[in-house]
Design brief:
5-stranded mixed β-sheet; 4-stranded mixed β-sheet; mainly beta; about 50% strand
C-alpha cells in the first residue's frame, strides 16, 4: 500500500526478538522494522549494520543514500540478525545520512 505523508519523524519503528527453540547455535532472530519517506525516483531504501565499538550493546544501523524529502511515499525497511544471546543488544540507533532518525530503547522478546 502506498500513501502520502508529510512527516519523517513519526515513530513507526519496532524491534523484537523471536526465540528459535530449534536453533542450536543462536538464541533467536532480531527484527527491526520501520517506515521512511522515500522519493519514487530512488531505489527502495535498505538498512545496513554499522560497526560501533564505543557502544558494544547498541546496534547501530544506517539507511544509506536516502534523499531527504518532506513529502513522498512511505517505504517499509526491515533488518534482521541472528543473535547468539538474548541480551546481545540493549538498544538500537538508526541513522539516515549521518542524522539520528530514531532510537529504540526497548526490544520485545517473543517466545
Amino acid at each position: 500500500m502506498i500513501y502520502q505523508t508529510i512527516q519523517q519523524d513519526i515513530d513507526l519503528w519496532e524491534a523484537w526478538i523471536e526465540f528459535d527453540h530449534t536453533a542450536e547455535n543462536y538464541f533467536g532472530t532480531l527484527y527491526i522494522m520501520g517506515e521512511v519517506v522515500a522519493d519514487k525516483k530512488e531505489m527502495h531504501p535498505f538498512i545496513i549494520k554499522c560497526v560501533h565499538e564505543n557502544e558494544p550493546r547498541t546496534l547501530v544501523l544506517e539507511i544509506p543514500s536516502l534523499t531527504h524529502v518532506d513529502t513522498g511515499n512511505m517505504a517499509e525497511v526491515v533488518y534482521s540478525e541472528n543473535l547468539g544471546r538474548i541480551d546481545q543488544y540493549e538498544s538500537v540507533k538508526i541513522y539516515c545520512n549521518k542524522e539520528l532518525i530514531t532510537e529504540i530503547g526497548e526490544i520485545e522478546i517473543l517466545i
